[in-house]
Write a structure and sequence with these properties.
Number of domains: 2
Strand order of the largest sheet: 1-2
Structural class: mainly alpha
Order of helices and strands: HHEHHEH
Mean pLDDT: 77
């Protein structure tokens, strides 16, 4: 569970968490010490909810556990915990992230605007897009 990058629960897992894990005197009702993502993982495990592999078919992460600047770095000195606590070995560089990434850890609002600009608004000359974003209508 990577709380910084977020997590997704199925309806069944959420139902089990709310109705089995969190009521008074239930396995997850006591506040534990430590990071919320680790506590969430322990709670879910205690009520029988198992994590799944969310990587894509090339074993690239969809939930990116580090800030993007660190994903493109091979220097673990900034995050010495990462190579020892990740279930799967993290990939770095351009092979770090799925083409269908869901969320990134450590994205501040200014960086989010920048990513939005690069992904949805800036169109490099010569690249043919199958979908024309200008045809999207956000008005109801």
């Amino acid at each position: 569970m990577s709380g910084g990058a977020g997590y997704v629960l199925s309806r069944d897992a959420l139902d089990k968490l709310v109705n089995t894990g969190l009521p008074a005197h239930a396995p997850c009702s006591k506040r534990g010490k430590g990071n919320e993502d680790l506590q969430m993982g322990k709670c879910l495990e205690s009520i029988g909810v198992r994590p799944m592999d969310s990587r894509d078919l090339y074993s690239r992460e969809r939930f990116i556990p580090l800030a993007l600047t660190n994903q493109f770095s091979v220097d673990f000195k900034k995050h010495p915990w990462e190579p020892t606590t990740s279930y799967y070995k993290s990939k770095k560089g351009f092979d770090c992230c799925s083409d269908f990434a869901i969320t990134f850890h450590g994205i501040d609002p200014q960086s989010m605007y920048l990513l939005d600009a690069f992904v949805y608004h800036i169109r490099p000359y010569g690249i043919d897009y199958k979908h024309d974003p200008s045809s999207d209508s956000y008005e109801q």
